[in-house]
Amino acid sequence: MKPSLTILCVGVICILLPCGILSAQPRSDEQPNILFLLADDQRWDSIGAHGNTVIQTPNIDQLARQGFSFSNAYCFGSPHGAVCIPSRAMLHTGRSLFRLSNLNMDGYQTLGEILGEHGYETFATGKWHNGRPSFVKSFQQGRNIMFGGMSNHAEVPIVQLDRHEMDFSAVEVGQHFSSKLFADAAIQFLYERDIDRPFFCYVSFTAPHDPRMSPGNFNRMYQPDEMPLPKNFLPQHPFNNGDLTTRDENLGAWPRTPEMIRAQTADYFGLVSHLDEQVGRILEALRETDVLKNTIIIYAADHGLGLGSHGLLGKQNLYEHSMKAPLFVVGPGIAPGQSEALVYLYELFPTLLEFAGVADPAEKDGQSLVPLIHGNSERTRDYLFTAYGTSMRAVRDIRWKLIRYPQIHRTQLFDLKNDPDEIHDLSESKDVVHRTEFERLSDLMVRAQQEFNDTQPLSVDQPQPAEIDLTGRERKPDQWQPRWIVEKYFKD
Question: What is the pTM of this model?
Answer without folding.
Answer: 0.91
